[in-house]
Every structure is written in structure tokens, then in C-alpha cells.
Amino acid sequence: MIEVIAEILRGPVFLAGETLHCRITLINKSTNENDATYNQGTPEKISWASVQLHCQRYVNEQKVNLQQQQNSSAKSNDSLATNVDIVPLDSTALIATKGETGQTVYTSKPCVLFCDLILQPGETRMFSYSETISTHVPPTFRGNYVKYSYKLTIGTQRVNHPTTLIRVPFRVLVVPDLDKYIRQDKVAIASSQPGTTVDNPFVCPNRTEIDSLTTALDALQILTSRTHQHVYNVTNNRGRVCRFTLFKNNLKLGEDILGILDFDHTDVPCVQYTVTLQSEEILNPHYRRKSSQLANATSYTRQSEFCLSTFQTYLSLSIPLSCTPTFSIDLVSLRWKLHFEFVISKTPRGSLLTNNDPSKSTAWSPPNSMDVESMTWDLPIKILPTNPYFANNVAKVSCTTVAII
């Protein structure tokens, strides 16, 4: 028997446009005489091995109407895919999506690792594979309407054995308008080469190629840099309830949302507030089963405080690294917002008793009951990807798959 180990290097999270590197190790385990596959002095022969990346889209057919699904009659013949699939013996071609449900929305060009490989008993052979992920792909996403899942598939076949498909899942984050920044880098590199009339002092003269990861991280730094504070007056028909200051609207995964809530000099007394970080999965109206379908909201971190007679307080909400950043494609879009819930008093704020004599104290007793009402307010924000090295720390998928063929 032959053990195949497929390992994605550096971790399972990548930015679109980045190059994925994988190491494939094959070990001839036929060294035990009790093994039925052991033939003393006979090496193992593998006919071929090939690698390919692909992205599968899974839709909730009860809520999503895709016309092309109606023509998918062959889908019932496929079984649910796992990390290791066995296909018929007479199949000698790599079909990376064999056994997968859903629709394939992205595939890379297949790469042949080897043909007619012979492994002696106990021998180990390693192969390297690299592929640049396209920038025009959807991100990894698990929503209520649609899901996008990425996998690296290795197809291999021993002589006189069925073809085996080995899959390694990974996660893709998409930086918006990354192509624009890559073009700018190409122009900067070209202008720094010898013989050109314009030299850019900010470009390293030894740099001759585009590093997509560096370009993407630079783009994220530009998009999420703090330019100025955003101040919002939250009001209702009776006047101002709160003044909210947000330090920046564009944030990265793993960052903290920082803000200030100011209840001083307001017209409506606020008793309690709650701020929730929420995402909204919005299905394109063209693909909805019912016109009344609403956006699917998901709540994440939350902060709640009582604020009666509070002049000022601070907001700090963390953005989980496992979330999907803001994106928009033809089928679905994902948007983020801060959902505010205010519990406000219907009666005017009573004036507190004051005493000018510092040697005496003044006690204020709150009322036993208050006539209150609630109001909500949504503030849209934009969440962008982060450095994939950080996202690797919370990745729930394994970047290694082991199979016996």
C-alpha cells in the first residue's frame, strides 16, 4: 500500500491573488509481511498524479432560484464528497469535482505531478505544487442562502487500482479592487528599471516582480487607515438621543471597533443601550423564490450598558477573525452594520438636586418604575480581510490530508 500525504504549506487561509504552495508526499508502506498487499522484492507503481484547485457553490434550493439547476439531471448520480473519494477503475482522467454537490464556479488548470512513478518498499518521494489563486473569485462563505467552499484536489491511481481523489480544504479572502493596486505596482516597477526616464525613489531598485501578498497587505493598510472621525447624531421625533463618534468605518478582521457615545446635552434621556455587530446576507432579487424574502442577519459580538445620567461612555467591539469580510457578487452580497438599540424614557429627565456646601452630601433615589420605549438605529460599516497569517490561528480546517491508495 502507498500512503499519500497532502499538506498545504503556511496554513489554510489565503488571499485571492496569492500563490498557494502544497507538498505531496508518497510513501511505500509495503514493508510488513502480514500485509496482504506486500510482495517481497516487488516495487509499487503509480500510473499518474495530478492536482487542481476548485471552488464549489452550494445554494439553498428552497430559497434560491437558479435556472441552470433545473438542467442538472446528472447530479443525482454523484455521491456526497469527502476528503478522500474513490472513482471507478476505468477512469484515468482527473475530474476534480467528481462526487461534489453544487456547482463549480472556479477551477485552476490541472497540473500533472508525474507519470509512471515506481516506489521501492519503504521509499519516500516528495513533490511540490504551486498555483496562484485568481483575483476574480468569491470568498469562502457559509451563508443561509449560498455557500462557497474551496478545495485542493489530488487525483492519483496505482496500476490495477481505482483512481483516488484526495481533497484538502482551504479558505480564501478577497481584497476589493486588488487588480488596481497590482497595476499600480507594475507601473512603479517599470518606472524604476534602468533605461527609463522616471525613477521612483520609493520603489526598491532590486524589485523586479509583483509580490501579490505584499501588494494586498499594502492595499488593506490604505483602505483601513484612519483618515478622520465620523460623528453621528442619533435622534427621534422628540430630539437628540445620543451623539456617536466612530473613529473609522473601514476595519479589518480581528480589529476592535472603537467609538464614543455621548449622552451630554441631549433632549431624550437614555436608560440603556445595546450595540451588536451584525452581518446581512442579501440575495439578489432576481434569484429569490419569493419577493418577500428579507436579508439574513447574523449577530456576533455585543456590548450593553445602563447609561442613565451618564455623560459619556466608550464602545469596543471585536471583529472575529473567522468572519467573512464584506463582498458583493451577482448572486449574493454580504454587508456589515452596527445595530443600536436604545431604551429611552418617555418622561423628561428630572434635574438632580445639588448642594453647594461640600460638607454635606446629596442623595438621589431612582424611581421605582419608568415609562420607557425602545428605538433602533443601524450604522453601515465595511469589514475587509486581514493578514492570512493571523487568520490561520483560528482556522477550523486542517491543511493536511492523509490517504491510503
Note down, in words, how this protein is organized:
This protein is mainly beta and 405 residues long. The chain has three domains: 2-174 and 390-404, Immunoglobulin-like (Sandwich), CATH 2.60.40.640; 178-223, no CATH class; 230-347 and 369-384, Sandwich (Immunoglobulin-like), CATH 2.60.40. It contains three helices and 22 strands. It has helices at 178-192, 212-223, 388-391; strands at 2-8, 13-15, 19-28, 44-59, 84-87, 103-107, 111-119, 124-132, 141-142, 146-158, 163-173, 230-236, 239-246, 250-252, 256-262, 270-283, 296-306, 312-318, 327-328, 332-345, 372-384, 400-404. Strands 2, 4, 5, 6, 7, 9, 10 and 11 form an eight-stranded mixed beta sheet that branches. Strands 14, 16, 17, 19, 20 and 21 form a six-stranded mixed beta sheet that branches. Strands 8-3-1-22 form a four-stranded antiparallel beta sheet, with no helix packed on it. A hairpin with a 3-residue loop joins strand 9 (141-142) and strand 10. Helix 1 (178-192) crosses helix 2 (212-223). The longest helix has 15 residues, at 178-192. It is elongated and about 100 Å long.
